[in-house]
Amino acid sequence: MDFEQHSLTVYDYVIFTCMLGFSAGIGIYYRFSGGRQQTNKEYFLADKSMPVMPVAFSLMASFMSAITLLGVASENYMYGTQFVVLNIAYIIGTPICAFVFLPVFFQMQATSAFEYLEKRFCKEVRLLASGIFIFEMVLYMSIVLYAPAMTLSAVTGLSTWSCVLSVGVVCTFYCTIGGMKAVLWTDVFQSLLMFSAVFVVIVKGTLDVGGIHKVWEIAQSGKRIEFLNFDFDPRVRHTVWSLIIGGVFTYSSIYAVNQAQIQRLLTVKSLKKSQLALFISWPILTILSIATSFAGLVVYANLSDCDPLLRAKETSVRFPDQILPYFVMTSLTMLPGLPGLFVAGIFSGSMSTISSCINSLAAVTVEDFLRPRCFGKTSERKIAFFTKLIAFLYGLLCMLLTFIVEKLGGVLQASLTIFNVIGGPLLGLFSLGMLVSRANSKGSTVGFLFALAFCFWIGFGGMHKGKRLPSYHRSTDACPVNNSLLQTSHPQSHYLNESFSELNFTIFNNSQIKSDDALFEEYIFPLYTLSYMWYAAIGWCTCMIFGLGFSLMLGEKERVNPLLLSPLVTSWSREQSPVLEVALGPSNKKVIVL
After folding, report:
1. E strand or H helix that includes residue 88
2. What's 224-290 look like in SS3?
3. Which helix (H) or strand (E) holds 590?
4. CATH 1.20.1730.10 describes domain 10-470+501-511+524-558
5. Which residues contact residue 409 at a Cβ distance below 8 angstroms, ignoring those fewer than 6 apart?
6. What are phi and psi of 93, to 5 degrees?
7. Which residue among 81, 204, 410, 534 is least crowded, i.e. fewest CB within 10 A of its CB?
8. What single DSSP character describes residue 80?
9. Cβ atoms 256, 96 nearer than 8 A
């Protein structure tokens, strides 16, 4: 293989520009078609007229960001295939989201998912949760915009800030003028580009190395094939237990209670169609996840004997996430346009996630904070105008924050940790409302805050104190000129910041490395060595336990509208107690005490 690193050509820039132009064109089309985005129902929920398939693709696209595409490939390159087991969690988590949580949101028909918390508990709980969500997503979307641009710029020669501004401006443009319809249909287009980018790498890399059997053979000899790690040690970052059990909680925190996903699921006409969209998104997500994982093995088969990270001075590859773009620029450049297709696919992952953030942030801001206080008797058309203005401001804020993120490197890791540790407690708060009839507002608030503080503590502690995991079975033996002092099967001695790996929530290799010198190593608090895959599960359990405990201690049992409980709870309660206490609540609505 030719290891010479090339630059993008005019054909590549044309493809990237066409991707941006087509995405903007979809926004323009929906600005001047249909209801022209003049009501918030159309702007946020697409008038509940969307077909199932684009919603399914959008659910996948908003979950699989550019960070995911680059991170999952580098995970398989550096450590192996154990991470693929996470797809089993998707199989378990999908019916939980579809049948336990989604019916409650669909019955309520509220634009903001956090409106549920006011109906079930109180206004203060709603504002607390939505405020934390805004803080989380604003930081996260700036990272999703900046991280891929920085990663690609070092390898492809693209200007970081040209990518940030072009992608940010186009994404803000079509989100602002086209609303949810534009977001959903651009997600479909961008999903196809994401698949194209991954499969181009797989096909070309497999042909270069001599076939799929050769890829598998090299991966096996490099100890990259592993699926059945049943280690019960919670410090091991990826095991069958952490990926399946922890993965179910992580998946549910995104697909069951996250505003961006719930908003998409409410854009179809019926609950059955919404559940169908969720079930269709699962195989689409799994196919892309497995394909991206295999792409990492393909790159390993091509580069493991001339590893770019081990000769960073020659290749400009500083992070594991840059390995996939490096392979593209050394292998695909002889076919004009393919590197451009790859770049377009990667930035499509960024745009689909950022558009989700912008639209959901605008919805939460308008519905939770502004409408109850500022929009009293304001007409729908004026509210829609202010809504678009807010969406535009969030897009602008996203681009401005990237300048701050660049200056404060630690914030990158901190922000990704925030995304990881907030999901579990939020899932626990909604679970208390939908699954525990005895939970009250005081107890749930205390439980949520306690779980949030606890997860932040172990999350940030793990980030700063946890140890890095070395990667073996890489060398520079096959390089044309071997200047590296590192030899085969030695870990990377100067392993740098692994900040942008894996599923949108970060992967800080905070599993403790076992060695004969363990007794002489610096003491690390045990909770800091836990695998990051357990964070969401820990947050959920902590919120549930303390939320219920404090509910029993701090207040009397509250009357609960049965429509605010999961069908799983109400059906079980009817079986246990055919005669239920029914009373009339506010507005003469029937409420039930279980």
Report:
1. helix 86-96
2. CCCCCCCCCCCCCCCCHHHHHHHHHHHHHHHHCCCHHHHHHHCCCCCHHHHHHHHHHHHHHHHHHHH
3. strand 590-593
4. yes
5. 497
6. -75, -30
7. 410
8. -
9. yes
For residues 82-101, one letter each, b for 16 or more C-beta atoms within 10 angstroms of the residue's C-beta and e for the rest, the string is bbbbbbebbeebbebbbebb
Looking at the whole model, is its pTM more than 0.70?
Answer: yes
Give the 3-state secondary structure of 501-530: CCCCCCCCCCCCCCCCCHHHCCCCCHHHHC
User: How many Å apart are CA 548 and CA 447, to the nearest integer?
Assistant: 8
Residue 343: CB atoms within 10 A of its CB come to 26
Question: Tokens standing for 530?
Answer: 């836990």
pLDDT tens profile 539-562: 999 999 999 999 999 877 778 888
Residue 120 tokens read as 């079930």
Q: What is the CA radius of gyration of the chain?
A: 24
Q: Which two tokens stand for residue 563?
A: 């429509």
By the 8 A CB rule, do 123 and 369 touch?
no
pLDDT digits (tens, 9 = 90+) for 252-266: 999 999 999 999 999
* Tokens read off for 421: 């540790």
